Amino acid sequence: MDSQGINVSVNSEIGKLQHVLVHTPGPELEKVTPENAHSFLFSDILNMQVAQKEYGYFKRVLQKAAQVHEIGDLLTDILQSENVKASLVDRVCKVENKAYLADYLKSLPATDLSRQLIEGVQLDDITFINNEHFALAPLPNLFFMRDASFTMFDNIMICNMATQVRARECIILNSIYNLHPLFETKVINPVLNYDTHGIGTVEGGDVQIIRDDVVICGLGSRTNMHGVEALVEHLKTKSGVKHLIFQELPLEPESFIHLDMVFTMLDVDKCMVYKPVIMNSAYKTFHITIDGQKAVGNEVPDLLVGLKDLGIDLEPIYCGGGDETFGSREQWHSGCNFFCLEPGKFIGYGRNQHTLQALNNAGFNVITAADVVNNKANLNNIRKCIVAFEGNELARGGGGARCMTMPVQRMAVEW
Q: What pTM value is reported for the model?
């Protein structure tokens, strides 16, 4: 068990990465079929072996830059306690109306319980009686770590998901963050704490920490206005003036589900943008200034203007190189979804060639994950770069490098 606590701190999207949480996709992917894919929020089914091979290179690049922690290992750690096991099982069974499974789940050793909570439970006698394929559904979306939680400054935030099929992810993560000695932080569920209507939703793919006083958020199919208001209420508890800029997103197609599918930070002065959404006046952008208990909002022309007004002047690099057709194709496969290892160094899919060319034209060297992993390229010797990893199978899951990571500690940035 990891015993040295992490001082949780994320004050930007780009600060040098210190600690990050991941989940390597496993057998839960093979539980997704053409018949149930839609209910699991997938538009396609993935080959587990290919996805794992691609993910292996992704993870090994992360390990070159930071300490990487597997969620499954952390879950197994906390389940060594019988009290924790009983409490977590009871919570899962209550939320999913599976009381009849409680005794069986509590009887499992920690390693097996951790695995089955993620991969799902298939018991012939129970599934036959209930006419269900799974006694407990698998969690094939868990490798998209950013959706169910995110780090905001010195807090880990638990999300209220837009879909019930992902509720168990939040329950598991909440237990890990609160009970594992690795984390030194206060865990906050902003919707449960501040949304008096009880219908707010917030997902981590919509929330980006730009600076220690600036947060941006998507408003769309996964994060609603009640969720945004809950974030405002949480920011009121923080010292100093804070700013929240929220960006309206199209409700479809599904490739626009989160803000990080159309905008991500790359450096102190560069960002990746899907122009038809971010630079389109049809999708409104609002800036809320929070000073103590006072919050004042106004509409701004677009996200980049709103950030520039706060002293963050970003040069946009366009997904697909700004070409409408290439941009549309590459955005669909997470062409905007990059994850920073440090300012000016980030990782993303290698399949989006027109976007990579645009990045290269903007001064970022394109290097392969294989070269980094095999020590043919040293990240410490390269000033600005995009590490491109193979993701032809992973991309079919509907997310990219940022989606698959949950940073809990970054170094401060000099703006």
A: 0.96
